[in-house]
Predict the 3D structure of the following.
Amino acid sequence: MKVDTELPLTVRETEHAEIAMPDGTRLAARIWMPEDAEARPVPAILEYIPYRKNDKTLERDHARAPWLAAQGYAYVRVDLRGSGESEGVMQDEYTPVELQDGCDVIAWIADQAWCDGCVGIVGISWGGFNGLQIAALRPPALKAVVTICSTDDRYADDIHYMGGTLLCEQLSWASVMFGINTLPPDPAHVGDRWRDMWTARLDGSGLWLETWLAHQTRDPFWKHGSVCEDFSRIQLPVYAVSGWADGYCRSVFRLVENLKGPVKGIVGPWAHRYPHLGEPGPAIDWLTEETRWWDHWLKGRDTGIMDEPPLRLYLQDHAAPRTHYAHRDGRWITEPSWPSPNVTRTRFALGSDGQMIRDGAGLPGAALTIRSPLWVGMQAGKWCSYAHPGDQPGDQRRDDAGSLTFQTAPLDEDLDIAGDARLTLALRADRPVAQVTVRLVDVAPDGAATRVSYGLLNLTHRDSHEQPAALEPGRDYVTEIPLKHVAQTFRRGHRIRLAVSSSYFPLAWPTPEPVTLTVLPGQSQLDLPIRASDGLSVPDFAPPRAGRPLDATYHVAPAAEWNVDEDRCTGRITAQIRDHEGDAYISRHDLSHSAEGRERYSVLPDQPTSAEGEVRWTHEMRRGDWSVRTVTTTRLTGDHENFRVVARLQAWEGDSLVREKRWDSSIKRTWC
């Protein structure tokens, strides 16, 4: 990455400012702006998230925010109520209080002497979510949105439930926030208030996993904050961004298709990261692209950005299966709209002999059965990749061995797809609750199998996520399973494989009982979005650039590990994941902070109720003779009727244990 040491304007930073909400609660902000902004007011860009402006996101913010401020903006980074140095307690994500606070923060920013009254909102993940949600509330000063790695649909396209199946990512993410919520504000900014603010968080934040598991269907809890419920509420310009390895790429297509106001979308090869930090590469000069957007909508400059096609995609070439990629080969393409006239939906027939033929007819159609061992899914990686070693899908051959597979003959020529494949599947199940996973796989001539896309469906949700219904064992059903969007080239000589399984652990939690699915290939078909070349040459983005990096020293470097082990006596298979964020010393704050997470998922191959998930996070903060440490542990299991959550929180100030709390809850399973 190019580091810009010479910026066009001198930037002034305010490390800590406090914004009073109407109820008296004060939210903490860090602000970068041109040095003369009071004399020459500028537009402002808000990033509004719970990830602690003073430590956890400071390294990222330090290279990004001053660069944008030097282009003539005030960059305002605000901690949510109950996070970082902000007062209050955070009890869940995207609450009405959070969104109203966001509107009030925007009004405060617009009223400052250094702001010209125009505000944009930007964010990745949480900040991308609430940016869309706040835009739907239409605060007057908000003029434009950049939403990165986010979603318009909190139920069907988030870390909670995919196709109505419970994602293990829900346990993982709830545990991340469980840990973050135990951290105190920094005494350097809030003074002696820090201890009272800390204990309020320890006592009041709660266990979010309990709440989320209590809502297993698409009910009003999830509809709140899902802007897809009424796209017309968003009338502001929106730039939506994601990556194929990210969990949230599908929302870019829905936003481009459904928003009636000005909209642009871009999907790269990236995991859950800002595009200038994009991995797998190529990363891009996102800060320049983002500035073009803000200049157009906040300064009224014609940057040409709205003359360009509304959707830009990275068409990935084949890659050998790896659980981590530093780079993906491919090229940029553009689409004039979505759906695109360049894409034709094309039928592939399935045969009981394993054939898959384009526009085929007369294939053998005898019924096939599958009862996948519960280790199918150990090559899945994470639902949402962070570009950590191990969190992308590995070679699919072992998972394929526990699945039904159908595949084409070797391709006569390259074939490109762009969009969402769909499988129409005729089947029956022998249990009232069942799930199905389908995977689209690129099979190289040497047999190596790379997952291209996948989809999940809880079959009790076949007609509705709001009102699921039990299956009638032995009855035939026809259902459609959408796969994640992707743009991908299948090379000449490769085969396209479709794999169908009855489980996908530990990406998705297993059904209460073992299930045998009977698939009727003759009544099933795969629909691929085949893209014809539009003949246009699309230039690459420039290489990434950013401001000076933060002066931080790592006593322990960030590290990630992912191991899968099998007990040869019992057959129990276990995935263990370690994520160490590093032990960093920030010299300008004389502050050290560290965080380490460990996840463990295991299951016996033929006993769904043997599934276990456990996540433990350890956080530390230190300055001189002041230190705090917290440990949170969450364990999820389930029987035929209920989920069980057992959790523990411990917090130390120095060597003194100041809080210990325990939870042991049973939550009824609802067709899940």
